[in-house]
Design goal:
about 75% helix; elongated; mainly alpha
Amino acid sequence: MLSIPQQSDTRWVCKYAGVHYFYNRFSCAVAALSELEKSRNKKDAAEARGLLHQLQSFDVLFTLCLLHDLLAVTQSLSLQLQSATLDYYATTVDVLLMLEEDEAKTQ
């Protein structure tokens, strides 16, 4: 059974886990809201319609994609910096390689 990761104000790893979870299940959230939009309960249907409209806006989609990519880098770096056996050279190389891969994907 999957559960939504708990958020922490100070842990970047938790922030990434939450965004990553929602990013991967975005279509499920849209499908669920689409079904709720057909509800006989007018209040539930109106709330679902409003949330669906907001979720499908450019601002939300852009922010979700941006945060997902940005926090992926931050999460990797955060985990490496918390390691008991921190290797600055390896960490720097890993981050640079990740950035190169991301740049190659966008071209």
